[in-house]
Amino acid sequence: MSWLELSVEIDQEAVESVSELFAQVGYNSGVAIEQPFVGSPDGPEYTIDAARPVVVRTYLPLDEHAEEARARIAQGLWALGMMRPVGELQVKQLEEEDWANAWKAHYPIRRIGERFVIVPSWLQYTSQAGDVVLNLDPGMAFGTGLHPTTQLCLLLLERYAVPGQRTLDLGCGSGILAIGAAKLGAQPVLAIDNDPIAVQATRENVERNAVGEVVTTVEGSLGPGAELGHWLGSDWATKQRRAHPTAGPVAFDPDAEFDLIVANILANVHVLLAPHLQRALKSGGTLVTSGIIADREADVAAAFAAAGLAQIERLQEGDWVALTHRRP
Q1: Average pLDDT over residues 75-103
Q2: Fewer Cβ atoms within 10 A, N terminus or C terminus of the chain?
Q3: CA angle, corner 301, sides to 259 and 146, nearest 5?
Q4: Is 0.85 surpassed by the pTM of this model?
Q5: Residue 156 and residue 7: Cα distance in Å, rounded?
Q6: pLDDT, tens digit, for every residue of 232-280?
Q7: Interval 148-198: pLDDT, tens
Q8: d(Cα 7, Cα 59) in Å, to the nearest integer?
Q9: What residues pair up with 263 in beta bridges, in sequence order?
């Protein structure tokens, strides 16, 4: 299968706006940000050269919707260019294997919060005292650690994940959150996603991080989530089923089973699954949710409140919101 790589050079002030624009059409909302890092002469630390441009990239399947998506990006960049310096949109066609490898050149080692360090599997890192190192190869699954929604979830995991918690990662993507919870001591951890590519990526990353005895990965979702089509549409889902034959997603409907649930998924899915998320939590259990664009926050908050969940924390980065709730 062929893909389009869309990229543009911008200044630091435009990174957030362009990332949001690209996330609207990129596969799984994935955005790669290539910062102009400068090495330190005193060690392995890096700083960002604010005087040099940043390159933002995203990828989309080359299908009948590709030209419309490219045009939307071009129009948005043109509008942004009225206010800030924006380079010319670059478009490059890639085959599937090239697409997966293309991320590697733009995926740096990154520290999130106080303890998490995300290390691409093809890079070396010497861990420091207290580090929780996540060795990842996202491939074509969402969850590089670069997107604000993933970073917000990791920040909240640092606060709420404790040893011994039975944990669910709903919409696991690359498995980054399930692995992070496991490395903070949560166990057992169930990672589920209705995308077979995400399931495969999670299984590989679970083994890469040596948490296979703790994390179980299954294709599925909570309740009606298993019946939802792929966010890229039914044509895309059909192609993936053919390329990655599976038995199909399993519908889970656990009752008061999990101490902690983390779900970095779309706002409309949060709304649909709110009562199922509440049902799956034990009394006193914690729900960490992200993937919520600020314009949809009120809808998600209302759905969780109606399901009997009490909000205890809110984080925001740019237009993205993460919420923490507790089942009384």
Answers
A1: 80
A2: C
A3: 70
A4: no
A5: 31
A6: 444 444 455 555 556 567 888 899 999 999 999 989 999 999 999 999 9
A7: 889 999 999 999 999 999 999 999 988 999 999 999 999 999 999 988 888
A8: 9
A9: 170, 289
Residue pair 14/104 in contact by the 8 Å Cβ criterion: no
pLDDT at 211 over 60: yes
DSSP state of 65: T
Band the pLDDT of 97: cuts 50, 70, 90: low
CATH number corresponding to 2-106: 3.30.70.120
- The b-or-e profile of 25-61 (16+ CB within 10 A means b, else e) is bbbbbbbbbbbeeeeeeeeeeeeeeeeebbbbbbbbb
Other Cβ atoms within 10 Å of 171 Cβ, number: 27
> CB–CB of 1/99 below 8 Å?
no
d(CA 167, CA 55): 36
89, 5 in Cβ contact below 8 A? no
pLDDT digits (tens, 9 = 90+) for 120-147: 888 888 888 999 999 987 665 566 777 8
Q: Which residues contact 134 (CB under 8 A, 6 or more apart)?
A: 116, 117, 118, 119, 145, 176, 179, 180, 183, 209
Provide the residue type at 306 as one letter: A
Domain ranges (residues) in the chain: 2-106, 143-326
Q: Contact, 53 vs 8, CB < 8 A?
A: no
Q: For 143-326, which CATH superfamily applies? A: Vaccinia Virus protein VP39 (3.40.50.150)
pLDDT the model gives residue 327? 97
How many angstroms separate the Cα of 181 from the Cα of each of 132, 167, 240? 10, 8, 28
Cβ neighbors of 121 (< 8 A, separation 6 or more) are 135, 136, 137, 208
Cα–Cα distance list, 237 to 31, 78, 89, 242 (Å) = 21, 32, 28, 9
CA distance 113 to 102: 27
